Amino acid sequence: MKVLVHKATQYWWPALKLFLLGACFWYLFQKLQQYEKAIWQQILIQLNFKNIGWLVVFTLLTIGNWCFEIVKWKQLASTVRKLNVTESVQQVFAAFTVSLPTPNRLGEYAGKVFFYTKSERKKILFLNAIHNGWQLFTTLLFGTVGLIFLSSQNHFSYNLKEMMVVGAVLIGLALIAFSLWKKEVGKSGYSLEFLWRKASQLSQSLHLKTFGLSVARYACFATLFYLLLQFFGADISFVETWPYLTAMYLLVSIVPSFVLADVVIRGSVAVWLFSLLSIPATVVIATVLSVWLLNFALPALIGSYFVTTTRLPSS
Question: What distance in Å separates the CA atoms of residue 239 and residue 146, rounded to the nearest whole number?
């Protein structure tokens, strides 16, 4: 029986890796086709030796973004099994590649558990939720401050009907969370109360470090976006830009994305917000595409190598 299981694993694991890689490259190909030739021309015109300093800065910010992500995962996963930097790099990039073709990149959870034994996988799923939760909290924190600032400056106006709809949605979400607080959800049998209690068992220093690294990563990709706007011709200060940047990341993080729609959503939100600053749509779209190439396409290609070299751990 063990021989049959081993034989089956020999076939299905390589087949699964090929499927995941195929889905990833199909996703990248479809994304690249969504942009008009004029946008590509605007990017290519800027790629010359005169702008080498800019390109170095963009590269360093991209590397910094992923370094913070790698360190963050290393310290969390090390509570289950001691992880070195090389293993954390492999797991982060492979999971990212697997997650790209999935809605809201949920495939990241599955991508990471492949590196662990069956007895470790529930803990890894939980730690990955903590990992992503702190990044989402950081986005919500800065985004809320940005939206409040924009509202105070009368950039946005709300009527009573809109406020009532928003209030009803928030109350509805609060009621759902309350009703599920002690209710066991899914096959795991975990309730929100149980997950909260498990999160509380992690040390405060670990939570603080994870939050700090999430803020550092947020600073990297937000700064990258701002500098790319300037690179493509937007004449605006960082102080003027930051509320729009934080609001943009907040809005795109709470809107569900479905595989091919995520870049479209990001681009649409960005064009709308930065049009309030009179920044041309072509500049904004060129920025969104460049950020996507640096922070999504390039890491996905790196992760594809780790996907092909990953071996299932012995149970």
Answer: 11
The count of domains in the chain is 1
State the Cα–Cα distance between residues 248 and 261, nearest whole angstrom. Answer: 16
The token pair that represents 89 in the structure block: 């790099």
> Residue 268, exposed/middle/buried by CB under 10 A (0-12, 13-18, 19+)?
middle
Q: How confident is the model at residue 151 (pLDDT cuts 50, 70, 90)?
A: confident
Specify if 104 maps to a domain.
Answer: yes
In a domain, 15, yes or no: no
Q: What is the mean pLDDT of the chain?
A: 76
Q: Which residues contact 87 (CB under 8 A, 6 or more apart)?
A: 74, 115
Convert the pLDDT of each residue in 96-135 to its tens digit. 888 877 766 777 777 788 888 888 888 888 898 899 889 9
Question: Is the entire prediction scored with pTM above 0.70?
Answer: yes
Specify if 23 maps to a domain.
Answer: no
The angle at the Cα of 116, spanning 115 to 118, to the nearest 5 degrees, equals 135
CA 17 – CA 307 distance, rounded (Å): 7
* 10 located within any domain: no
Segments forming the whole domain that contains residue 162? 35-309
